[in-house]
Amino acid sequence: MKNFEFYNPVRILFGKGTIAKISKHLPEGVPVLFVYGGGSIKKNGVYDQVVAALQSTEYYEYPGVMPNPVYEQLMPALDLIKEKKIGFILAVGGGSVIDGAKFLAAAACYEGDDPWDLLSKHAEVKAALPIGTVLTLPATGTEMNGNSVISRVSVNHKLAFGSSLVMPKFSVLDPDTTCTLPKNQIANGVIDAFIHVLEQYLTYPSKAEVQDRFAESLLLILTHTGSKVFSDPEPDYDTRANFMWAATNALNTSISMGVTSDWSTHTIGHELTALYGFDHAVSLAIVLPGVMTHLSEKRKDKLLQFGERIWGITSFDHKAAIAETIKYTEQFFRCLGVKTKLSEYGIGSEAIGKVVAQLSSHGATVLGGAGDVTIDDVEAILSTRLVP
Ligand code: NZQ
Ligand code: ZN
Fold first, then answer.
1. Domain residue ranges in the chain
2. Closest ligand 1 atom to Cα of 185
3. Quick one: which of 196, 252, 317, 337 could link to 144 by a disulfide (CB 3.0–4.6 Å)?
């Protein structure tokens, strides 16, 4: 196991009725910006619960944060933050709303000319407004980490930044808020969280047993509860609660400590979303089997461990076992209604050059932290996603 330093100060308020606790954790006498998305929270009662919790707080609303949050839509909020002397941002919704709030938190304190530099030039986050979140879509883990992914539509770029300064002060996780999720968003959440675990696990052995076994337990819980939440019209509370907490743990960075992480699937997937508008999880379900196939020899040990411990695959023929492991993984995504080939979305080989050009324009050469995926591998990875 490698040396590591683990820091995660996010307070989690988990369970039924916990939105009401928000007021206890807001700083006193500070105007709050209440940020949310396209209106799902108005249909499922979450908005009313938040408004009730804010009754003694001066607050202003900033609605309309879009899926794959958009720089151009977020920027006008900076004027409101300045004008109303906002001192705290409360994000209520899925990963997009929370990531949008993190960007605003950092952008409001950014002293350079254009806050987009935080993403495009990796400008350092030196200060940020404090934020809190109410999560309504288990998927991204953003409620318990310091990452944010923002799109700039005018240039087709989707980029990430990270800082411990934008980690939420608190996050409310009430599984009842997830009852209104449409099936495709449940599938997205299960797949995104599942692939977050794999990005941190499916690389090279690090003799990190806690991280490995914890990652494997999350994968098993996500397959079990994810399938149930997806297919059962009225999944019970505990199934939804376990799904929600598993998705948070999948990316609160604890399983990445002391091991080699990857993230090349995400890096390539973000370009597919920027170019073709795929939902985030759909882009990952397309790319991951390509990464697994392309690296099947290099990452043989972890692929075999994953296949055996998650899908129960054992064989003396390691090539056959790995092929079966990739097949089962793809089948899991397909059972959740998500297709896994570019060709199934009507996209042909022209996509490969476009993705490579986008990656080059951001200066990307080595993709991911394992050092075994470079920009030269992208063609081979995506080519596997074109065959019928
Ligand atoms: O906008 P509203 O009306 O709220 O509707 C949303 C949106 O249309 C809807 N929704 C959310 N909760 C709901 C609900 N509908 C009914 N009932 C509910 N309870 O779901 C739609 C999708 O929401 P979105 O927030 O976009 O989804 P998700 O949570 O999957 O977030 C995706 C974004 O997070 C980024 C992705 O790249 C993408 O931009 N990620 C962020 C990460 C991070 N910060 O750590 C890591 C991830 O890998 C990911 O990259
Ligand atoms: Zn993701």
1. 11-177, 182-383
2. 20
3. 252
Ligand 1 neighbours (beta carbon < 6 A): 37-41, 44, 67-68, 93-97, 99, 136-137, 139-142, 145, 147-149, 177-178, 180-181, 185, 188, 192, 251, 266, 280
Q: What is the pLDDT of residue 259?
A: 98
Nearest ligand to residue 256 Cα: 1
pLDDT band at 387 (very low <50, low <70, confident <90, very high): confident
Query: For residue 162, what are the β-bridge partners?
Result: 147
Q: For residue 17, is it left (φ>0), alpha (ψ between -120 and 50) or beta?
A: left
Q: Shortest CA distance to 274 belongs to which of 384, 172, 354, 186?
A: 354
Q: How many A from CA of 219 to the centre of ligand 2?
A: 14
Fold of 11-177: Rossmann fold (3.40.50)
- Domain 182-383, architecture per CATH: Up-down Bundle (1.20)
Question: Are 11-177 and 182-383 equal in CATH topology?
Answer: no
> Which pLDDT score is estimated for 197?
98
Does residue 307 contact residue 322 with C-beta atoms inside 8 Å? Answer: yes
- Residue nearest to ligand 1 atom 31, measured at CA: 95
CB 325 within 8 A of CB 307: yes
The closest residue, in CA terms, to atom 18 on ligand 1 is: 181
